[in-house]
Amino acid sequence: MAENNVSKTKKLFTVCGLVVLALGIILYFAKAPMGLNRKIYDLPIFLIIIGLGFACKGFMMKPGAKELELSKKSFGEFLTNNAILLAMLVLVIVICILQPRFMQIRVALDILTQSSTKLIMALGICFTLLIAGTDLSAGRMVGLASVVSASMLQTATYANRFFPDLPQVQLWMPILIAIVACMIFGALNGFLVAKYDMHPFIATLAVQVIIYGACSLYFDMPPNNSQPIGGIRPDFAQLGQMRLFAGIYQGFPGISILIPIALVICVIIWFVLNKTVFGKNVYAIGGNREAAVVAGINVFRNIMGIFILASCLYGIAGVLEAARTAGATNNYGNGYELDAIAACVVGGVSLSGGIGKVGGIVMGVLIFTIIQYGLQFINVSPMWQQVIKGVIIAVAVAIDLTKYRRK
User: Fold this and answer.
1) Boundaries of every domain in the chain
2) CA distances from 88 to 31, 100, 324 (A)
3) pLDDT for 1
């Protein structure tokens, strides 16, 4: 019986994938003779990629896979569990109709580039959400890492150097200092939460204010006096601006170095959460802290590790953000934590703790970035963008709470 179910599922994914793949190939070779170049742009390439993805999923499906039920109940559950994703797909289709230029590889790469540092930050904040907490200091840590790293990595000839007498140090040193500075504040977050059982909202709110004050004092030091930090060294700027495979074929803009960096960090975090004792402890503490204590898990040590690891990721995101923009101010990262929390929730990380996957977080970040980028692409008012973003967050949390109550 199980083999029959899997066989049906495999056939469904494989056939759908091959159909989409064939459609993409046909359009790719037919668009030039039919004069569709300016109407569908790179749509055939996207169809080929999507078709290959579905076909590969079908081919790799093994016995024991979850059965696909075609019923009214299962259809309703599918709509509930994927409401945000389906809404995004509808929005993308509408945007492509209004502005066919949205169907370009260049646009897709821009979206992935913009998502990279946000994804690294969201991966950090997901650890605090998995234990039914949060981290309001995350955005300010991004700003701190940006300012600290940029202040020590300016060119020697820049007129308004932060440290006029500082020699040209190795690239890794300021980056390490910036990340360690964030980890110190992360340890403070963890200590307040683990030692005094302080609610993460209050603990991280207090640390957020401390970080912003400390960063502003540092940023205001003479001779800088709160001026935006510029004159970034080329080797540091390359860390966020380098393009891989640029010019591999005519018109290809290249892949931002931030994309593979974010991908590598995704793999590492997936391994930590799924293949290590620490990762299993994170889920256990989030699922039932009392039971975790009874099971012999050192809650204090694990909570400290969670906030320190999260702050390390915030520091990396801050350094990359400074490199990407070739500058920094003390207001970098302001409000980033709210977008990261929203992306995690949209990606299926439960606010009640103990539930969440790296793949879902990736989808959550991409959904938010695609919606924001797409609305800007069709010139929707920034005020309406905020309204739409708020509706998405409210719907995602409502769905999350509904699923939790059912369980």
Assistant:
1) 1-59, 110-333
2) 26, 17, 27
3) 44
Q: Which tokens in the block code for residue 228?
A: 């935006």
Region of 202 (left: φ > 0; alpha: ψ -120 to 50; beta: rest) is alpha
Tokens describing residue 27: 């359009």
Q: How far apart are CA 336 and CA 317, in angstroms?
A: 11
Count of all residues that appear for the chain in the document: 407
Secondary structure (3-state) at 18: helix
Question: What is the Cα–Cα distance from 275 to 92, expressed in whole angstroms?
Answer: 36
What type of residue sits at position 130? L
Residue recorded with tokens 């070739």: 326
Each residue's pLDDT tens digit, 385-402: 889 888 888 887 787 677
Q: Confidence band (pLDDT; 50, 70, 90) for 302?
A: very high
Question: What does DSSP assign to residue 71?
Answer: S
Above 70 in pLDDT, residue 157? yes
Query: Residue 314 to residues 105, 121, 300, 306: CA-CA distances in angstroms?
Result: 29, 5, 21, 12
What is the model's pTM?
A: 0.91
**DSSP strands (E only) in 83-229:** none
| Helices within 31-104 (DSSP H only) | 37-40, 43-60, 72-81, 83-98
> What is the b/e burial string over 201-226, where b = at least 16 CB atoms within 10 angstroms of the residue's CB?
eebbebbbeebbeebbebbeeeebee
